Structure formats: structure tokens, C-alpha cells
Amino acid sequence: MAASVLFDAPGPKTRQRHRLYTIISAIGLLAIVALIVFQLERKGQFAYALWEPFVTPKIINILVEGVSKTLQAAVFAILGALILGMLLGVGKLSEHRALRWPAWLVVEFFRATPLLLVIIATWYYIGPEPGTKAFLALVLGLILYNGAVFAEIFRAGINAVPKGQSEAAYAIGMRKSLVMRIVLIPQAVKIMLPSLISQAIVALKDTSLGYAVLAPGLTYTGKQIFGTFRNTIQTAFVIALIYITLNLLLTWLATWAQKRYVGEKTDIPKAVD
């Protein structure tokens, strides 16, 4: 086996030391978890009355509705961001300054602006009201922010295609728009897909910011639940568990699509960190 260019292969003593570090770290983590559980038990956080709402049909239906709204926001945001990102990414690669500089300005502005500020500003621009307007502000904010990130992914993916591909296309008389559509983008998709999938997972998690503008979704539903039953820790745990499950399902679906349509196995970053 070839040695790594970054570090030498560990010897027997080093491997033994690493195993010791692993055991000590595991014991430390278990101790922290045990301490947290002990403190929660001491303060009565495991009382049935605090968990009972989550086995009540009415609350379950409210949570299901919250999941539905969260998924709707994520789907609309991801699709809109993909379209916006492709347009801005291609615009940044344009030879025309009238297209390149505005695209660059939009991308850099929304990449540098915190997402929560974008969502709140959009909400106040549309009309600071809960419900439909808040949901629309959440989706538009996610589209603007993630569209800027997708634009950089598209630009980097297209630039990563070997220059000989475009040069060969130009040599047979193809125009730049045709080269971009037929030659560069199809090959760049294979390069971009892992990053696109990772950012889509981030967009799903970012729907949680909808609580700040009273947008319907999981976090807003959770806010209503713990505001009624005074079970903040329990509600946060359940909402986090639902988000983790949704992210794992999206990761599984993305991995399947990667293998099915690209034909190569690529590690998709997990969405639970």
C-alpha cells in the first residue's frame, strides 16, 4: 500500500495510542451524556406529563402539518434556488460585462448577507404578517441565499470541465450557448452533484429559521406546543429528531440518485452535524 503524502502510516505503538485515545474519548462522551440525563431526571424533565402531548392525536396532526409545510418550503426553495443559481452562474461566466457584473454583484451580496436578515427583510418588504406572506418570505429568502451559493457551485463545476471539451466544440463551429448547453453543463453536473446535494440539505435545515417571521412549519409548530404545555426541552428534542430524520432521508435519496443517474459512488456529507 502506498504511503500517504500527508503523513506516514502509523506504527503499532501509534495505533495502540490512538485506540487508547478513542476509548478515553468514548468514556468522556458517555460521562457527559450520563450527567445530562441525570440533571434532566433530577429536574423532572422525564415526567410523563411533559411528553404526553406528543402521543396525543391532535398534537401529532399539528406536527404532521408542520412537517408538510416545512417540506413544501424546502422543495420550492431548492427548485427556485437551482434555477436562480444556474442563471447567475452562467451569467458570471458570460463574456458580456452587462451580464457578468450584475450577476457577480447579486451573488456576492447574498452570499455575504446572513440568511436570517434576508428572510426578515423580505418579510417586511412583502408585509410583516404571519401565514402566507411569512411562508413566501421564507421561501424567497432561501431562494436568494441558496441561489447565490448554487451559482458558485455551477460556475466552479463548469470551470472544472477540461478546456479541451469546449475547444473541440468551438473547433467544429458550435456557438458558446450551444457549447454551454450540450457540452459543458452535462459534464459539469457529475462534478457538481455532491455539492448541490449538500447545499440542498442545508436549505432543508434552514427552513427552521421560519420561526423568526412566524412562517408555518416545524419550528413555528414547536413554538406553539411548548408555549402551551411549557415543555421546551421535550419539544426541542422531538423537533430535532424530526429534522434529523428528514435530513437522513434526503441524504439517502441523494445517494441513490447519485448512484442511479451518475453511475459512480460519491460520499454525500451527512446532514446531522
Helix-strand blueprint:
Layout: H1 12-42, H2 48-51, H3 57-92, H4 97-112, H5 115-126, H6 132-160, H7 163-171, H8 176-206, H9 218-229, H10 232-262
Helix pairs in contact: 3-4, 3-6, 3-8, 3-9, 4-6, 5-6, 6-8, 7-8, 8-10, 9-10
Q: What do these coordinates show?
A:
The chain has 273 residues and is mainly alpha-helical. The chain has two domains: 11-42; 60-262, Orthogonal Bundle (MetI-like fold), CATH 1.10.3720. Helices cover 77% and strands 0% of the residues. The chain has helices at residues 12-42, 48-51, 57-92, 97-112, 115-126, 132-160, 163-171, 176-206, 218-229, 232-262. Helix 6 (132-160) crosses helix 8 (176-206). The longest helix is centred in the N-terminal third of the chain and has 36 residues, at 57-92. The protein is globular and about 75 Å long.
Q: Helix/strand-derived class?
A: mainly alpha
Determine the strand fraction and express it as a percent band.
under 5%
Q: In percent, how helical is the residue content?
A: over 70%
Q: For the report, how would you describe the main beta sheet?
A: none
Q: What is the count of structural domains?
A: 2
Q: Which consecutive residue ranges, at least 5 long each, have pLDDT under 50?
A: 265-273
CATH superfamily of the largest domain: MetI-like
The overall pLDDT average reads: 86
The rounded Rg comes to: 24 Å
CATH architecture type of the largest domain: Orthogonal Bundle
**Distance separating the two termini:** 32 Å
In the CATH scheme, what's the topology name of the largest domain? MetI-like fold
**Tally of helical runs:** 10
Shape: globular
One letter per element, helices H and strands E, the order comes to HHHHHHHHHH
What is the C-level CATH assignment of the largest domain? Mainly Alpha
